[in-house]
Amino acid sequence: MVSRLVVLVSLVLLPLQAIAALTASVDRNPVLAGEFFNLTIRAEQNVKGEQPDTTPLLKNFVVGPTSVRSNTSIINGQVNHTTQWQVELMARNPGTYEIPSFSVANMQSNPLSVKVVPSSTADNQSKDVYIETSMQSDTLYVQQAGVYTVKLFLANDLTEGQLGSPELETANVSQLGKQKESYEIIDGIRYLIIERNYLIQPQKSGQYTIKSPYFKGRIRDNYRTRAASAVGKDIQLTIKPIPQSSSGNWLPSELVTLNEEWQPEKQSYQIGEPITRTITVTALGITKEQLPEINLPTINGVRSYSDQAESNNLVRNGKVISQKVESFALMPQAPGSYTLPEVRVPWFNIITNRTEYATLPERKLTVVGDPNFVQPAISAPIQNNALPESTQTNTANQTTFETPFYYWPLVFLGYVLWLITLVIWWIKRKPATQTGNNDVTPKQSITPLPELKEALKQNNQRAFYHQLVKLCKLHTGSADLTKLNNMVNNSQFAESVNHLQANLYAGKNHAVDLKFIYQQINNLNKKTKSENELTQLY
pLDDT by residue (tens digit) across 47-91? Predict the structure, then answer.
């Protein structure tokens, strides 16, 4: 009786054990190095909200995405539920690797052993897909930028595919630009070559391995498609620490240069004339983010505004070249000779292993006054008592003669005629003045240029400023806007012009009322006309 009960309980529990089973399997074993294969984990029940932890697989394999599928079937009236997870795996190097057991919903799977063989041992293995990796130097300093190149060779048409990225711990890895595509015939086979460049910037010294990117996809083989995968060789990298002798900003490079351009380029400049100084920093083997900022000292008598810097980088001959361009607007305020000090950028030469300096020599800046401004001449005082020697002699000689008797009557007659002429002019003065006013041409006034009004309509600050300088130079003979400020004699006008200059040459964002500036110019025009009319009345 007891034995029958045990058998009955075993028969009841047998289906439950089958339901509770969790198994793991691979679609092929052995597998090729660099070839993807499928790991399938199957539970004989419906599992919701849980999935196997594939993190331990990252130690020995490249782990692809995990897909899950549930299935329900009825056989002979019995309902069966299954849940299946599928993971794509790839081993980079040959060897024997263990796939650990997994735990899902209190179920435990069996561990697996997978043998990975070199791809060259496969029979009739055609070299239709492969990857090449390269790096110009396998030794870098901390924070030095190296260029890592990946080339994917495809002998067949690609229907779909995925190319991964290189991996290097404790380093910044980023792709440089877009990938390049070209064709090349190798050993009589025509290949499509996809090339990518990556920027490798290590952050810690030591010995490291750059893990090659992998390719997984499908290629066309005759009239059908088949799966294809490949992986390149890993590269060993030696990272040197920052030398203790280095000080300041750490800039490891093979070459760092400084260049400058002046616009306009000439021997001397006028007061208020805008000068643009452009400084370019070029470095080999570092990123554009590492390039230092150029800080110019303040010079009394010269206003300086810095514009926003532009940075970029590119790859030439397997090396990264970075460049930063900074522009400075200089506006001299007073005449004189100014000395712009030397510009120095320290950097570490990785070839000579010592600190060097990229420099711009000091420069003399000569500022002159307005050449069109004529200094009024100072007249010598008139000395009524100082007469030429000849005149004094003649006068002396004349005193020896006696005054004629008709001298005084002639003087009196001339005086009377002058009084009669004055009376006649006084009587006719009013009509003559009225008639003359119609023929008088008013003096030239400061009229705003049409281009200035057009720039105001478009709210174009740069065009408005250029027309303002042009107007100032036209009527004062100088591009110095302080002369125009003095004519307007309005503190708000001067402040608005200064803010406009700061917006254009210092990257500021002041609110500038262009209409107010234009109105002040117009008011100056009306004032000038009024003064001309008053002048004509007198």
Answer: 777 788 888 888 888 887 788 887 777 777 677 778 888 888 888
**Cα 125 to chain center, whole Å?**
49
Distance, in Å, from the CA atom of 359 to the CA atom of 351, rounded to the nearest integer, reads: 19
Contact predicate 211/62, CB 8 Å: no
Fill in the amino acid letter for 524: L
In this prediction, residue 281 carries a pLDDT of 94
Q: Is the peptide bond before 30 cis (omega within 30 degrees of 0)?
A: yes
What's the pLDDT band for 342 if we cut at 50, 70, 90? very high
> Which of 163, 167, 199, 197 is closest to 180 using CA atoms?
197
Q: How many residues does the chain have?
A: 538
What's the rounded Cα separation, in Å, for the pair 69 and 466? 70
Could you read off the pLDDT of 129-143 as tens digits, one per residue? 899 999 988 999 999
Contact 225, 123 (CB under 8 A): no
Is residue 175 within 8 A of residue 196, CB to CB? The reply is yes
Q: What is the distance between the alpha carbons of residues 373 and 427, in angstroms, rounded to a whole number?
A: 44
CB atoms inside a 10 Å sphere around CB 202? 25
CA separation for the pair 238, 243 (Å, rounded): 15
**SS3 at position 39:** strand
Residue type, 394: N
Concatenating the DSSP letter of every residue in 337-398 gives EEEEPPEEEEEEETTTTEEEEEEE--EEEEEE--TT-PPPP-PPPP-TT---HHHHHHHHHH
- How many Cα neighbours within 13 Å face the side chain of 339? 4
Q: Alpha helix locations (H) across 399-508?
A: 407-437, 450-458, 461-476, 481-488, 491-505
Q: Is the peptide bond before 292 cis (omega within 30 degrees of 0)?
A: no
The encoded tokens of residue 451 equal 């281009």
Each residue of 379-389: b (16+ CB within 10 Å) or e?
eeeeeeeeeee
Is pLDDT larger for residue 430 or for residue 210? 210
Q: Are the CB atoms for 355 and 318 separated by under 8 Å?
A: no
Give kind and range of the element (H or E) at residue 8.
helix 2-19
Q: Identify whether the C-beta of residue 504 lies closer than 8 Å to the C-beta of residue 461.
A: yes
